[in-house]
Structures are given as C-alpha cells and as structure tokens.
Design a protein that fits this description.
alpha/beta
C-alpha cells in the first residue's frame, strides 16, 4: 500500500543515526523559519522574492487547493524548497544537505510545487491593455511614432538536457543543446505570452508561426503591434527593422548620427526593443536554473521556463522595485551627442527569405504593414531634421 505524504516526509540516508529523525527533520523547518523571520532581503536572497510576496503566493496555492500542509512539511517549506532549487540552480543532493530530507521527498515536493504553479500560470500572464504604454508616451523619441506599440517579441535559447537519441533537433546553430523560447513582453518588464519547448534548431520565425497558429495563441489587439528584431518578417501585428540598413541589437552607442529615415527608425526600434534584453536578464538573474540544463525530464524543463516567467510576472506585480528589477530597469532618457561623426556599425543578419509564414496574409495586408512602417519612419525623420538638437 502506498504511504501517505505524512509518512513519506521522513529523513533518510546521509548516515543519519537511527532514532534522530525527529530532531534532524526539523532542520529544514528551522532554516525556513529563520529566513522568514529575518530581514526581507534575506528572503529575497534565498527564496527569490520578498517575504510579503512569498506569503501571498503560499496563500494563493493553499486557497486554490493546490498545496496542503503535511505533518512534517508546511506549505511555506514546500515552496521554499522549490524556490531554493530554481533560485540557486542546485541539485537535489545539495538541497538534501540543507533541508535534511531524503532525495525522494525533495523531488516530490519540487514537482508538486512546479505543477501547482503551472496549473495557475495563465493567471499571471495579462494581455496588453489599450492605453499607450507610459514608457512610450513619456519619451519623445518613441511618441507619437510608436503610440500603437504594445511591447516587443523575441526568442531566447534555454539550455536543455535530453537523451542521446533526441539531441539532434535540440542542437542550435552554435552546436549547443537548447530549447527555443519565444516571449512577448511589455515595456515595463512583464511577460504577455511565453511559448517554450521548441527545439533549439527551430528558427525564430518558425516558433513565432507556432505561437500565432496554435490553440493557445499569441493574440495582438486590433490596431496594435509588437516590435521585432531582424530575425523576423514584417507582417500584420508586428513591425521589424528595415533589412537593408544597419540595425543595432543593443543600445545605440553615443555619437551615432543616422543618415536617413530608415537608419533613424532602426535605431529607435532597437532602443525600444531593449526591454526584451532587460526582461530576460532579470529572469535569469532571479532563476539561474535557466542558465544551465537541469537533469529533469524534458517536460519538466519546459514547465520550468513557463513557471519562471509566471513567477517573474507575479513578483513584478507585487514588488516591482525589488533589487533584481532595479538592476535591470534602465533609464532611456539619456541624450545622444549628434556632434560626433557616424560610427562604423555591423551589418545585420539578413532574414532568410526561404522561410515562409505558416499563417497566410493577403498581399494588401502585408503592403499596409510596410506602409505603416514607412509612415512612422517618415514622420520620425521629419521631426528629427526639423529640430537640430533633437535627441535619439
């Protein structure tokens, strides 16, 4: 007969003397209590979120019946085990040494918490609103040109561990094993949508195709659009850079003077799209388990990405100014010095014209998207050359 959670949450292995289970079993509880009774910064350091946020998440998981206390391990400790693993990229044995539970107990509660958060992850992804994002409205380099822009879309490769027979499709163009994850994010560093699990060899455009055609698809409100980089095509709901002019994937260096409307447009699009770099940076800073392949089944590795993004959103909503977010928030209001000569820039990676969108657009739809980009660039350039000291 299968034992209950209460019966299985004992201490095993590690050369623990018989008869000492009760005292040793309390070590994990003692550690969690010390962290939660200490300064909030200690909770952030160990469990990757402030104390009020941690307790609120516990309350949500308990209220929805997704986690329950056991005789030995309270919900707080179950969540602490999970957060400690993903927040420090630790393996089960290392966590055993700290919490003094068996590897089976650690793994069981890790998966329980993972599945619990996964089951409500959709609650933490909010679709974009209809208002102009403050980050656009309050910056004259972006407004009114990008007034209908709701965020940016990009892909990121997350290391993955798979069996030898499965490795071929998961090898990206650098020869590393990864899953190609697509994310649509807002300018205030929240994820609108995440699609994980695609093989590392899949192109970014192919993953975007999947996001637009699957049942739980990425939806773009009517009249709105996301910004893309030069890996993608220009299409309805998405605006990409001009492919035939320099494009900076990172922040434009001071002193670069655009030569025409297309260069100016590409510069500002790149600057606005830096939100994706910052949100991915904050995500990996908080959850370093995403930076190396964890020894879990592939399905678990995929869930980990979605759950990490969901937790990122939850924490961003509840505590938007913790030190991890502050590290990756960036002031884009700096002034560019236009008195310096142009700088040499790298040519962009050109979009592969052989890739075809799975979703069909009429020629007039594609033409309208192209015209929209041209009109934005023209308006931007007219204002730029009218005001000599206008900053990027």
């Amino acid at each position: 007969m299968e034992s209950s959670d209460d019966e299985r949450d004992g201490v095993y292995g590690n050369n623990i003397p018989k008869g000492s289970s009760h005292n040793v079993a309390s070590n994990g509880t003692k550690f969690v209590d010390e962290v939660l009774n200490g300064h909030s910064e200690r909770c952030l350091e160990n469990f990757r979120m402030d104390k009020p946020v941690f307790y609120k998440l516990c309350d949500i998981l308990q209220a929805k019946g997704l986690l329950r206390h056991t005789t030995r391990i309270k919900i707080e400790e179950q969540l602490a085990i999970f957060m400690f693993i993903i927040g420090h990229n630790l393996r089960t044995r290392a966590v055993q040494e700290l919490f003094r539970y068996s590897g089976e107990t650690i793994s069981r509660h890790f998966n329980k918490v993972l599945n619990a958060i996964m089951s409500i992850s959709v609650d933490f992804f909010q679709p974009p609103g209809s208002d102009v994002p403050p980050e656009i409205y309050e910056d004259p380099r972006f407004y009114p040109y990008f007034k209908d822009c709701i965020g940016a879309v990009d892909g990121i490769h997350i290391p993955v561990m798979v069996g030898v027979d499965e490795q071929g499709p998961f090898r990206n163009r650098n020869g590393l094993l990864s899953q190609n994850v697509l994310a649509a994010c807002s300018f205030d560093l929240k994820f609108h949508y995440v699609l994980a699990g695609w093989e590392g060899s899949a192109s970014d455009l192919r993953v975007l195709n999947s996001a637009l055609t699957r049942r739980n698809k990425l939806q773009v409100p009517e009249g709105k659009y996301y910004l893309l980089d030069n890996k993608y095509a220009n299409m309805p709901g998405f605006i990409s850079p001009y492919q035939d002019v320099p494009y900076h994937s990172n922040q434009i260096p001071s002193g670069y003077h655009p030569q025409d409307a297309k260069e100016l447009f590409n510069q500002r699009l790149s600057l606005a799209r830096s939100a994706t770099d910052r949100i991915f940076g904050a995500l990996k800073e908080r959850f370093p388990i995403l930076m190396s392949a964890p020894p879990y089944p592939l399905q678990t590795q995929v869930k980990l990405v979605v759950v990490a993004c969901a937790l990122h959103n939850f924490i961003r909503r509840e505590k938007p100014d913790d030190w991890i977010f502050r590290t990756y928030e960036q002031d884009l209001s700096f002034q560019m010095d236009e008195s310096l000569p142009p700088l040499e820039v790298e040519q962009p990676l050109m979009h592969d014209a052989t890739q075809v969108l799975d979703i069909s657009f009429q020629p007039d739809q594609l033409d309208l998207t192209s015209q929209l980009r041209d009109s934005i660039a023209a308006e931007m350039w007219d204002d730029y050359i009218t005001h000599v000291n206008y900053s990027l």
